[in-house]
Amino acid sequence: MSTKGTDVNPDGGWGWFVVLATFICTGLSAGNFYSFGVLFAAFLDAFDGTKSETAWIGSIFSLMFVIATAISNALVRRIGHRPTVMLAGALGTTGLLLSSFATSLHQLYFTYGGIAGFGLGMSYMPCVDMTGKYFKRRLSLALGLGMSGTGAGQFLLALVNQLLVDYYGWRGMLLILAAVSFHMCLAGALLRPLKQYKSLQMQESQSLQQDCDSGTAVPFNKTIETASDKVTKSENQTIDERTDGCSARERTCKCCPQRCKRVTEFFSSMYDRALLTHPVYWMHIVVAIGQPIGHITVTTHVVRRLRDFGITDTRSSMIAALMGLAQLVGRPLYGTIANTGRVKPNVLYGIAMATCGAVTIVSIYVKTMAGQIVYILLFGMCVGGYVVLIPIVVTYYHGKDMIGIGTSGLLQIHGIVGLIIAPLAGYLRDKYGEYDQAFWVVVAAYTITSVAAFLLPIVDRLVKNHRKKADSNVRTAYDVKESGVFDESTV
To answer: Residue 212 burial (CB < 10 Å; 0-12/13-18/19+)?
Structure first.
């Protein structure tokens, strides 16, 4: 394997262009999602649907966005980071373009929520994953800077979208947004693979081609080892010699074994079995369930809630922009603090979510414009903080090899929960005539997530102690057996 050229984790150099690409892609993708509040109000006026029906557009967008993160992880291992992001830009642009011609909410479910959400979501994880390959010592700082594009995108899009809606209508706004989003393809071109990674990827492709030519089948319970992430093979690997190591899917598939093999590899590369069964990761999942209950409810309904407070559309759209500005500050700030190593990532994680819950309580009672500005600035800064800490916390507890798969899994939880929570908040508003009940749900969610974040090291310590004790018992039993004093009936 050739290592000549750029080293793995150069912590700089071209890596800063990768950070720039991450900034652009997160700004155009996540920025579109977080600024949906402006479109939400425009769609309400255009189609006269209920708040619950209209909120489904953002929910479907959120779900497709995170489903795309899993698909993009698999595509990265097949075609690479650069082509995946370029494909994402093309799909996202197509979805936004088609949305400008929609004549009903149901069409927007498909074009904006489905196509645009899936396309824009595909760009997110390849950029984060490539940043992890270029940085090691400065990883937290690089992620903070790159992912601050979300805040910049939300800040700019919230302001510009409202102006575009006022001047050109929501259809003209979507046309312009489609043209701007096409620049994601240019950002994808900046994701130049490291030479060592590229060499590994070429070796993997050649090995795969040789296997296909020889007709070699894939063992059923085998974890795929890829060029981008060397995943440890399953300890419980069992091959049935009577089936020549083929899985049930391959034995019953009528197509050629090579095609079955590729399909199996593609879906296997989306998840890691060992990670999904790790107790600490299940704590991450608990946190991931609560986070979207908070930030999706607020980002989707904060503009409409300000209307209930008697604040005009132009001024209320400023709130969404200020939230983006706060995230623009919060993400690199939290990333920089985490990079110092003086505060454990889970502590920062918990503080950010606890602060979100506390300021949301205040926002329920303080209904002035000034009070809402202070609320959204603090809330946005902390949301930006805990979002950028997700891959950092995953890396801290599970290793950098899991940054892509681990973060993608948690974002998928965000999408599944977001599919339900935004319409639920709209339903509560329609039922009670106010948003107070929905925002109390936000407070409860952040309370649970912050407690779970603070408990992460305790659970991690318990798991390690349990495994250490189990390993010790196994070694003791082996030593006793070797000494000839082993009684199998006692085991």
So the answer is: middle
